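quick one: flavin mononucleotide bound model?
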Amino acid sequence: MFAYDKKDSYTFSFTSPDELRLYMERNGYHIPFSKDISPLSAKPVIKTPHGEITLKNSLATHPMEGCDANIDGSASDLTRRRYARFSGSGAALVWMEAISVVPEARTSDHQMMLNDNTADSFKSLVADIKKNDAFVVAQLTHSGRFAKNSDTPHALFATRSLPFEEKRPQDKDVPVLTDDYLDALPEKFAKAAKIAEDAGFDAIDVKACHQYLLDELLSAHTREGKYGGSFENRIRLMVDCFDAVRSVLRPETVLASRLSLSDMIEAPYGFAVAEGRPATPDLTETKKLLEILTAKGLSLVDMTMGSPYFNPHVNRPYNRGSYMPPEHPLVGLERLIDASREIQHTFPDLTVIGTGYSYLREFAPYVAAGALKEKAASMIGFGRMAFAYDTFATDMMAGKVDPKKVCIACSKCAEIKRLSGLTGCPIRDQEIYLPVYRELCMKK
Ligand SMILES: Cc1cc2nc3c(=O)[nH]c(=O)nc-3n(C[C@H](O)[C@H](O)[C@H](O)COP(=O)(O)O)c2cc1C
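yep, here:
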């Protein structure tokens, strides 16, 4: 494998798709590549227990939290502008960002929230997105460890986690959430799911990723009681929330999940990792969980790995960020593609969306097409690219990506999000987001 050169992560020096391909070949990366980009325009089929849904192409926008909702959790004008861009990009599927099911679990006072008061706002937002003929997914979440808002004096921990507490020792004294608190959550997910369905969403995501609450519980090896320890206990709340959501939805509404296939946090604190250091993925438990959920009707997974709060380079390969990534970004991309392939090959009927491709800039279409060709995923999602480039999907499918519009993997959107500012791309969408970045991040 390519010896990691520190300077290398700060530059993206490929000037042609062939140069990238040769570099990957010479350095032993098993990253798919196809000059034929027609797979991007292929129409994937989501197979549900109640029928099949055909989408207009194989590209999606990932959930991207914008921290720009009104204080009541409804969509602001800026939220609407983001979704007009996402759906106008030409992508077939728009996976809406993290939407809190309860007020105390919001990541900021401006996270979206689904309840009776915000239902109408979601209804008109979804109707606007659908004008662009996109399939729309609602991401339901409880932000647990990362809850941070004026209603909640401290974050809401599901389990003790040494790796996180080493970073924030003050969290050691905060008690973990009780079984009683967790017992009440499936009903809250179900209520939000019903409102989302009535608002017109096509699919409901029970989110378990990035160490937010349901994912943190998947890794709660050291928690005592019915939600910790054994595999059955750790998946209990995820499965209960999934069941509760399923029980209130119409059969034609698609059941989905944004799932961390592996947290890549050392055992015993991460989900789906092999024993030992450094953390490496072991997807045995992920497959066991997916066996259970697909049998219950899960049809759509937006795969991811790691946690942006702990190992962001795993989650989104980048050139620049809050720390120097300990590996070349292509190592991270290869890991994401390997995991996606393993799951897609094990569950061929599941629609798996691949991730991490924004790092590749204007060359992303070739790797995305290669991944689709070898069925390493059914669709390819773009997150940071969607913030940056408002017609990325149409341009990718046409083979006309503008290098001046692509994401440059600089992590500035993540910096803004971390400080709960209005989140978007300060490089390519400067009018709105450069002043935000200057004010919030450069004055720090
Ligand atoms: C600013 C920002 C906000 C994000 N918000 C969410 C979110 O609300 N829900 C989620 O599941 N992932 C979220 N993610 C992760 C992305 O969906 C995606 O997995 C990641 O950016 C890698 O994809 P990319 O390489 O196309 O950017 C966010 C990422 C960033 C940088």
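DSSP finds 16 helices and eleven strands in the chain.
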